[in-house]
Amino acid sequence: MLTNLLIFVSLVAYSTACTRLVMALRYDLPIDPRVQFATGLVGSIAQIGLMATLMIHDGGIDFSLLKSISLVLATAVLFVTLSSQRFAIQALQLALMPIAGLFAICSVIAPSSRELLQLSAGTGLHISTSILAYGTFTVAAVMALLLGYSSLRLRHHKLTPLVKHVPPVEALESILYELLAWGTVLLGLSILTGFIFVGDFFAQHLIHKTALSILAFVIYSFICIGHWRRGWRGRRVMRWVFGAYASLTLAYVGSKLVLEWVLRS
C-alpha cells in the first residue's frame, strides 16, 4: 500500500512539473519557480522514500541495479530542485524527471536481481558517498549539455525558448564547475572509504569498478585544477567532462550490469 502511494505521488509530481515546463517552453511563458520547487521536492522525496521501502529489508539492503539507478536519479532531481532556489535551472528537471520516473516504475515491477547485503556503518558511508557523487556528476553532465546547447544557439544568434529560460552562459559555466568540484570531493571520499571499509575493494569482481572510478576521479580533478589555475573552459573541457562521466557510468552501472544480468552473481 505504501509503495503504491509513494510511486503515485512521485509520478504525479513529476508529470505536473514536466507538463508545466513543456507549456512554458512551447508558448514562451514564464516558469513559476514555486510550483517547480514544490513538485520537484515532493516528487524526489517520494521517490527516495519509495526506494527506501524497496531496498531496506529485515535481512539486509537490496542494492540491485534498477533500484540503485532510481535512487541516484531521485537524488539528482532533489539536487536540481534545491539548487533552483539559487539558480534558475528548473529546465534541468525536464531532462531528469521522466528518466527518474521510468526507473521508479521499473524498480517496482522488476524482481530484484541481487541477494540482500549486510552493511556495516563504514560500508554504508562508502555507498552513500558513491550515490551522492554519481548523482552530482549526473546533474553536471546534463548541465554541460545545456551549456553546450546554449553556447551553440548564441553563436548562431538563435535564442530558443529554452535558452531564454536558463541563466546566461557565464552563470551556467560557473554552476557547472561548482558541481564538478563538489562531485570530485564526494567521489574522493567514496574511493577513500572504499579503501578503508570495503575488504574486497580490489577483488577480481570489483577491480574494474575501482580502476574506472579512480580514472574518473583523476580526470575530474585534472579539470577542476586546470580551471582554477589556468582558466580552462570550452568544448575541449566538455569532452573531458563527458569522458569522465562515461568512465564513472561504466564503473557504477556497467559493473553492476555485468554482475547481475550477465554473470548472475
Distance separating the two termini: 31 Å
- The secondary-structure element order is HHEEHHHHHHH
Low-pLDDT parts are none
Strand content: under 5%
How many domains comprise the coordinates?
Answer: 2
Helix and strand content put the structural class at mainly alpha
Return Rg in Å. 19 Å
Largest sheet: 2 strands, antiparallel
Give the % helix. over 70%
Task: Describe this structure as you would to a colleague.
The chain has 2 domains: 1-114; 119-265, no CATH class. It is 77% helix and 2% strand. The chain is built from 9 helices and 2 strands; from the N terminus they run H-H-E-E-H-H-H-H-H-H-H. A two-stranded antiparallel ribbon has the order 1-2. The mean pLDDT is 86.
Indicate the topology.
Blueprint: H1 2-26, H2 33-55, E1 56-57, E2 60-61, H3 65-83, H4 92-109, H5 121-155, H6 161-164, H7 169-197, H8 207-230, H9 235-262
Antiparallel strand pairs: 1-2
